[in-house]
Amino acid sequence: MDTWTFGWTLALIGMGGTMLVLWILSLLILLLKKVFPYRPGESAAKKG
Amino acid sequence: MESALISGLQGLVIGVTNLGLGHVIMILIASGLLYLGIQKGYEPLLLVPIGFGAILVNIPLADMMGKEGFLRFFYDAGVLTEVFPLLIFVGIGAMTDFQPLLENPKIILLGAAGQFGIFLTLLLALAVGFDKLDAVAVAIIGACDGPTAIYVSSKFAPHMLGAVSVAAYSYMSLVPLIQPPIMRALTTEKERMIVMGLVKQPVSKTTKILFPIVVTIFASLLAPKGAPLIGTIMLGNLMKESGVVDRLKSASENEITNIVTLLLGLCIGATMEADKFLRGQTLLVLCLGFIAICLDTAVGVLFGKLMCVLTGGKINPLIGAAGISAFPMSARVVQAQGQKYNKKSYLLMHAMSANAGGQIGSVIAAAVMLSVLQGMGIVGG
């Protein structure tokens, strides 16, 4: 593989891949928050 | 008797007679690092051991990095095996609070944009003649994250470890000087004055505990080569959030991190031998590292501008600059800049979200990079 094919492939997949993974992570965070919502008084209850 | 005395005295001056110009220059450079760490307070935890390690390794005939040198032992055991940066990641995970990011997850995208400097610098490094894996090692300075830079460069270009690490830590400490001019150049005064509303979305304990587990599984499946990086930082965070292993968490963020930081710093300094460090290539690495961090900031701010447009002006583009891994320094820079243009603007929590996103982003970017390299057959599986 020549240098520029290597460089552009790594740069494009790298940028796109990083953005995609973090975007999906943001969706997973939203999903977690939806499935396990914060309940007021949660921290107080934990402390007993 | 007379000749024995002369031989004995020769033993005392042999170090001095073997001292070359390269050694002297390196000792001066090492002294400069010590000055920056001690007097200026720039990343002292790293620059002090790095500077001292560089002095030790440039004492002629001391053979610190020789086959049986004591620095060689730590280098082989901790740097070549990549164990030291990974142990530091456990500590970083244990110290990092991802709550601001969990409260406002869309901001994590700024943490992705803040890594683009890595990939743009890769192209620049190839353009100036670095070979493929050396270019990867130079580009990773753009992760703005010392352990990530050390992990990747020790894997692909160990001969450049000293230059890459010094560049990474020096520029990280210079973030308050590097970022503001770029932030000002790429934003209008009107944009800098945008006041962002409070995001008050409390996060449940369960979500905080599940977050590191989900990130580890999901991100490692997508980029398996980066699993050690992702796994260690998330292990540290799980120990913090679970609240059931306080002793391990405390050891990770204190004793383990402190010991490993000392040994890692010494080992990095030990790679700065005159004949390896005093090359034109080192200057190029330092220049490209600087450009990488400038590009990270620029792309982060530009992405912030895009988010500003897409949200109808609700996002202050300045927080894009915090999408790098220098935590929490760049968030503080953003807060200071925001306050400078609008006293009613409190960007700190938003910038902390972007900054936490940058921490995850740098690890993910490195993981993606490693996996793509494996996919292309550049590195083994």
Structure commentary:
- The complex is a heterodimer of chains A (48) and B (381).
- Chain A is mainly α.
- Chain A has a domain at 10-34.
- Chain A is 81% helix and 0% strand.
- Chain A has two helices and no strands.
- Chain A is rod-shaped, with a radius of gyration of 20 Å.
- The N and C termini of chain A lie far apart (62 Å).
- Chain B has a domain at 95-245 and 271-375.
- Chain B is mainly α and 381 residues long.
- Chain B has 20 helices and no strands.
- Chain B is globular, with a radius of gyration of 22 Å.
- Chain B has helices spanning 2-17, 21-38, 44-57, 70-79, 83-95, 99-103, 108-113, 116-127, 132-139, 146-156, 161-173, 175-186, 189-192, 205-222, 227-242, 246-270, 274-277, 280-310, 329-341, 348-375.
- The longest helix of chain B has 31 residues, at 280-310.
- The A-B interface holds A 1, 3-4, 6-15, 17-19, 21-30, 32-33, 36-39, 42-43, 46 and B 101-102, 105-106, 108-109, 111-113, 115-116, 118-120, 122-123, 126, 132, 135-136, 201-207, 210-211, 214-215, 218-219, 222-223, 357, 360-361, 364-365, 368-369, 372-373, 376, 378.
Keywords:
heterodimer; A: 48 residues; mainly alpha; 2 helices; 81% helix; 0% strand; rod-shaped; B: 381 residues; 20 helices
SSE blueprint and pairings:
The complex is a heterodimer of chains A (48) and B (381).
Chain A: H1 3-35, H2 42-47
Chain B: H1 2-17, H2 21-38, H3 44-57, H4 70-79, H5 83-95, H6 99-103, H7 108-113, H8 116-127, H9 132-139, H10 146-156, H11 161-173, H12 175-186, H13 189-192, H14 205-222, H15 227-242, H16 246-270, H17 274-277, H18 280-310, H19 329-341, H20 348-375
Helix pairs in contact in B: 2-3, 3-16, 4-16, 5-10, 5-15, 5-16, 8-9, 8-18, 9-10, 10-11, 11-18, 12-18, 12-19, 14-15, 19-20
Terminal Cα separation of chain B, in Å?
64 Å
Largest sheet of chain B: none
**How much strand content do the residues of chain B show?**
under 5%
Portion in beta strands of chain A: under 5%
Tell me how many strands of chain B there are. 0
Average predicted local confidence, pLDDT of chain B: 92
The biggest chain-chain interface is: A-B, 35 and 46 residues
| Spans where pLDDT lies below 50 across 5 or more residues of chain A | none
Count of helix runs of chain A: 2
Give the N-terminus to C-terminus distance of chain A in angstroms: 62 Å
- Assembly state of the chains shown: heterodimer
Overall, the morphology of chain A is: rod-shaped
* Backbone CA Rg of chain A: 20 Å
Largest sheet of chain A: none
Radius of gyration of chain B from the CA trace?
22 Å
Q: How many strands of chain A?
A: 0
Based on helices, strands and strand pairing, what is the structural class of chain B?
mainly alpha
* Low confidence ranges of chain B: none
Provide the structure class of chain A. Answer: mainly alpha
Percent of residues in helices of chain B: over 70%
